[in-house]
């Protein structure tokens, strides 16, 4: 049976917002690309890759899902800006939640928090697959 965290990754278009403080964000981008998803990367670090999005305004309207793994800015600010662009599903990387994210209540959006994306995207025979197995076994998946 699929849960909301598994269904999240079935969508086709994603914006990934990173500041390169969470290594799993690069793996997330790579895995989404490997699955043929439409991925827009907004890198807030000092050295974004060529082709990365430079501002919220450059993100196309109606991207379905956003994955945020940032520690140098408040993800809640980006959630509000992306909601205005039509995004309604958000994944806030484990240990990047802020009080503003914790307090956010909006029936028009879904926020998944407290989980690493790679626990759901990682291959079975990887450290992420092992983590997934342990989480399922302990009821924390």
From TrEMBL:
Protein origin, superkingdom: Archaea
InterPro entries on file: NAD(P)-bd_dom_sf
Entry protein name: CoA-binding domain-containing protein
